[in-house]
Structures are given as C-alpha cells and as structure tokens.
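Forum: Protein Structure Q&A
Topic: Joint prediction for protein chains with partners

I've read a bunch of threads here and the consensus seems to be that you should model interacting components together rather than docking separate models afterwards. I'd like to see that in practice. Below is the full input, 848 residues plus whatever partners are listed. Could one of the regulars post the assembled result?
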Amino acid sequence: MNNILRMLAQRISLGVLTLFIVSIIIFLAVSMLPGDAAQAILGQAATPDTIEILRKQLGLDLPAHTRYLTWLSSIVQGDFGTSIGNGREISEVIGVRFFNTIFLAAFAACISVPLALVLGILAALYRNSYYDRTVNALTLTSISTPEFFVAYILILYVSVKTGWFPSLANVHADTGFFERLEKTFLPAVTLTLVSVAYMMRMTRAAIINLLSSSYIEMASLKGMKRLRIITHHALPNAWAPIINVIVLNLAYLIVGVVVVEVVFVYPGLGQLLVDAVQRRDMPVVQACCLIFAATYVSLNLIADILSILTNPRLLHPK
Amino acid sequence: MKPFDKLVRSLNKGEISRRDFLQKASALGLASAIPASLMSSNALAGGPKRGGHLRVATVQGSSTDKLDPIFLSSGHTNFLWYSMHGQLTEILPDGQLAPQIAESFEPGADPSEWIFKLRKGIEFHNGQALTAEDVIASLERHRGEASASAMKSFMEEVESITKDGNHVVKMKLKSASVDFPVILSASSLSILPSSNGKIEQFDVGCGAYILESFEPGQHSKLKRNPNHFMSNRAFVDSAEILTIADATARLNALVTGAVDVIGDVDSTSADRLARKSSINVLDVVSTQHYTFPMRTDLGPFDNNHVRMALKLSIDRDDVLDKVLSGHGLVGNDHPISPANRYYNHELEQRVFDPEKAKWHLKQAGLSKLQVELSASDGLYAGAVDTTVLFSEHAKQSGIEITPKRVPDDGYWSDVWLKHPWCASYWSGRPTEDWMFTQGYSASSNWNETYWKNEKFNNLLVAARAEIDDSKRRDMYFEMQAICRDDGGSVIHAFANHISANTNNVGVPDTVAGNWEFDGYKLIERWWMTG
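Posted by a regular:
Agreed with the consensus. Here's the joint model:
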C-alpha cells in the first residue's frame, strides 16, 4: 500500500507541475492570437480611441508577464478571477457549466461502459461468430461517423420524425433531474455511439489475448463453462488495459464534446471555452483549460491506481 | 429572372403567402403592378390576441455577453435591450421615426438643436419614475474622454445635453443634423435608471418586458411589464430569447416545436422549410448588404477604371440566384436599399458587361488584371462561394481574381480595413446619412474603402442640415450615383432577413426591415394565436 501512496504523492506533484506548464502554454497561445479582448468586445464597432480606453479599463494595457503573474498569484489563492467579457465571477460561470458537462459525461458513461463491457465479453465468448462480426461492424461504423452526423441522424429519426425525444438539450439550473435526463438523452446516446467501440474492442481483445494462456486451457479441460471461464478467470487479469481505455474515454466525454454541445445547444464547458477563445477572454480560457488538464491528469492517475489494485503482482511486489 | 417575376412564381407555388407577397412587392415599389386578382387577401384573420408564451431562437449570443447596453455585445443582447428597455425614439415597422420615451421631439431654431419632451408617468421596472436626469445620465455615458461606447462617434457630435425641468431634454449638436433623432433609437442608447447621475443597474429598464433571468450565450427570460407606457403592443405574457448557433439545430428546434420563431434561416433551407404546412417563412426586404470594399488608397484600386472594370465583371443575378437562392435584391454599388427612404430608383441598374469592363481596363492601361480577394464564411453564409463565382465571372473580362479564404476569427481586426480587397457586409442603417457617414465619409474610422470624394463629402454635410425634403432627396440621389460610379465598393446584393415561425404565431401585416426580428421588436409586436 505504501508504494501506492508514494506514487500518489509523486503523481499529484507532477500533475500540479503539468497544470502550471499548461497555463503558460495557454497564456502564450492566446496572446499569439490576433486581436485582444477589447477588439473582440467592440468588434466591427471598434475605433482606435475606444479600444485604447477599453484596454485600460480591462487592464490589458499592462505587459503580458505582469498580467500572467497577477493571474497566477490569484489562482494560487483559489481565486479564478472575473471574466473579461462580462465581469462575472468565473467560479460562478464555470460552476454551472462544469456540473452540466459532468452530468452529461456521467450519463453517457452509465450507458456506454456497461454496454461496452457486455458487448465485449459476449464478442470474446462468441468470437468469430455472426454476432461478433455484426457488433464489430456496427460499432466501427458508428465510431467512424463524425459525431455531429450521428447526432443529426438521431435528431432526424428520434426527434423530428417521431417526436420521442427533444432535439434541444438546453437545460437550466432549475431543470429537474428527470427532465434533465430526458433532455440530455439524445446527446448521451450520441456520445455512447461514438465511444462504445474503443471500450468494447479493448475488452474483447484483452480477453481473447488471455484465452490462449495455459491456465485458461486448464480451466476448460476441467470442464468449466466458457462464460464462467471468461468472467472468473480471464476478466480479472484483463482489467488493466480495459480500465485504461475506459478512463481515456471518460476523459474524452468530459473534454472533447464541444461539437455535440453545439448540435444539441447544451450549455457545457466546451461551448464556453470556444466563446471565450473567440472573445479572447483569457481568465475563462485559462480556467476551462486547467479544468480539462486536471481532468486528464486525475483520470490517468485513477487508471493507474485501479490497474495496480486489480493486479496482485503490482500490489504486493517482492 | 426579375425580382417581381420571382415573387409571382413563389406565390403561385405556394412558397410564400399573399401577405408576404404584398409586403415584398411593395418594398420593391411594385405595388401598382400587382394584378387585382391577387389582391383579394384572405390570409388576414383577426387582430392581435393577448396571452401566451413566445420563444424566439437567434443565431447570435456568446457566453461573454454583458447586460450593459454600452457594449454592442451581440444580436442576442440587442434583441433583449429592445424588449426590456425604452429609447427616446423608435423606428416603426414602415420605417418612419416616432417618439417613444419622448412624447414629441422637434428641432430648436435649426437642426443643430433638438428638444425632446418626455412622456410623464413612465416608471422603470423597479418603480422608479423616469425623469430627464435618467435620460442625461444614460446618454452621457456614450461620450467624453473615458467612454468606450460603440456609439461614441455619433454622440461626439453632441455638444451638450441639458434638461429644462423634469421632462424636457435639450441636445445641442456641433453641427446641424436633420436625422439626429433617428440615432437615438439605437438599442445602445437605451434609457436606464440613474441614481445621483450614475447608471448602476443594468437589469432594469422601462420597456414592455421585464427581465426575469439572463444566461449569457444561452437564454433570456422576460415577462410582460403591466405598467408599460404604450398600449396596443406587448401581447404575449412572457417570452424567451434562446441562442442556437447551429443552423440545423435551429431548424430542428422549430420543426419539433421547441421554439416558435427562428431567425437567420439560410436561403437554401428557406424554400424547403416553406413547404411544411405548419411553418411560415417570412422574407423581409432589408438594408443588409454584402460588399467587396477595395482600398482606393492602394494600387491598382486607386484607379477608378480598375474599380469600374471589377464592378462590371460580376454577374449579380447569378450570385443572387446561386448564393442567395433569390432571397434578396441585386445591389447597384451603393449601400442604400429599397427599404430606405431616399432610395434612388431612377438610377440605372449596373449589369454584367465584360466588354465594357475590358474597355475600362484598357483605359487604365492594363491588358489584364490579377487581384486577390479575401473572404471568410463566418461573415455570412456563402461569402466564400460568392468570391469563387465572382472570379469565374471576371475571367470573361480578362481579370484574374484569386479567392483567398481567411479565418473568421479576428476578421474585423486583421483582414477588414487591412487587406487591399476583401469581403464585408453591413446590416445597413435606417437613414442615408447614418449609412454614408459611417461607411463612406472621408473622416469615418469605418470608411472601408478609404474613399475620399470631395463632392460626395460636401453633399453629405449639406444634406445633413437640409430641411427641405425634396432638396435632401435630390442630394441623396446624387450621392448614390457618385458612390455607384466612383466609390470603392462592389455592392452586389441586398440580403433579405429570413425568419420562420410556426403557425400559432401571429405576424403583423408590416414587418420592419431595419434589423432582423421585426427590427428586434418582435416580442412586443407579434402575438400567439393559439
């Protein structure tokens, strides 16, 4: 257990360093974009005079490193600052959006992870059967189709033609839980369709890989049922790669769904980030990117810990 | 096909209603050409009804939008301000100017002074009474050293704003301007409640609707203001403005009944959408136009023969047909639309003429011409397609136009006013003076062609102060002609505002074309029928 704690400490400090580096890169990248927040706010209506005044009001006339250090010192104290675009507290703006993003990701994961595992185990069980091939073909098709297209197809058949589910997922802070589930159903299904293939194929491959090992052969020689062999003997040893791919997909569900958000008008973090980049709203861009980076870092950490916990050889090294 | 024939065809195919037809035909100035058999309208049934909840989806709106009207954040906030705030004046659906918060307005000794008498008894949503002080505090924010207002260049024309009692505001201008009251109808110049000469509350106004909630980039919720100072408007009990940026999502929302009205229907979807019996597509002739401004301060565009050659090398009808699917009108290389008051209908329409273009090139001492044209699809749907079409047309005059696709992001700061030739658009302005001053006067920051025509600029100043209507008309007619024959912009099309609504929405007979959504006043002008 000690080595897990040691790894945890090590990885968390590395994670913090990663976040720091990410924040510098983001700051530089946004600074390199043409124009700044003052120009973006005034848009076509900008005149050199008003841009200058607005820059002063927003503190954009200060040199870049001063702005970065000011931002860094407040973030260390847990203060995300205020949005340049509309002066709102970032923690407030992001709070609701972050909850929405997590809700959708969790909803999609609740459908896709069990589905992928079951489909993958069955595919390994009935390897090379018609079932196996059909599932493979279907999941590969859905993963090869762009998300927005999957979304449009779903909207056309399940929303426009039949009216079963709403095509708009515009949830508010006061939307009830079941209404929220109904409104986010189509986006969640879209995300399921585009993410299930990886997990399902990894499950199948990891199990099939083990099926040729000698202890499995032994088990089948003893006359065990195939399903029992897979669930009791193969699966426990296959968890590590499966967990890794599941966690990577969870990260995708949180950080990579802006296209789905746009199509379903879902107020998540992705849309906020895109808006903030367009308006050069640096504090918001930074906050979003840090959340995304932190998501990746912590999910990877969780994946590593879980793979150690599921593997006795790693858990009790000699 | 001529615009009128196109209208008749659309009517016969049932693509547009009689009402739309009449509206568009009269905008074309062709009302007298309408056959009597078409005039028996049965589309109009009953007047506005009170009650109901109206949901409108707009393409614009960003999560960084701010409630303060000093910033022109987006179409969403513009819409919101016209719904929740009042302005001194208002542009009516037929394009006429009317007093709003002002009970009346009139010039002083000459049009360099304007006197606004305010209505008595107006209350803000928080119960505070509206006085001349609120008007002054609201307008003063847009001028002076520290102001970052988008309306600053207009309000700088104001020398002083003073009050005379609690209900009279006097504005002294630096020079005479007959159209000055029109500018006070802008949403940025909304009147907000003040305390001690300062504006601190931005979610309170005196308009027909009270703001209930505002989520930037998502939605605004409004409910009717029971104490509104004007009658015969504000029919729905409550309303919602939603931002739906994705065009397909917007169409789906309308088709599935999640919203009642959508804006920015692209012209290719409009005809297909109109075939659905439950949906009505509304095409409104507007002042919105697409331009290709050439920098007249740079070669080769400093030579008017080159500019003329390019103006003659675009097949406007083809662009209107292919890019706008006919939902618009061809432009005549000046920014004044048939929806404007002094539109010069006597001016001959410029047509595609490669031979004449070649002649102009020859006069410029060129046998052929190679130019680059920058555009981005973020400007308007089909901007890049238009440049490609243009380059095909121009080949016939021996001109090689290289369409250059540039990023949408940062277009206004890095491409517009910078590249020698690029695509641009204007939502248009309600008055000739406003449009010409902003886009074509030598001193404007947005003179996108860097055009400095002395005669034009003199006429502009003279027309601004001219009280005699027919003399003003002649001046604006002449300016349109100068702009057309010497100006730096190829203005090939006016695009209609296309919106779509479900059948349970009541639409007035006349819909304003100064902005989309009935001049952004749809929520207080439209109603629910069922």
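Confidence is low (pLDDT under 50) at residues 30-45 of chain B.
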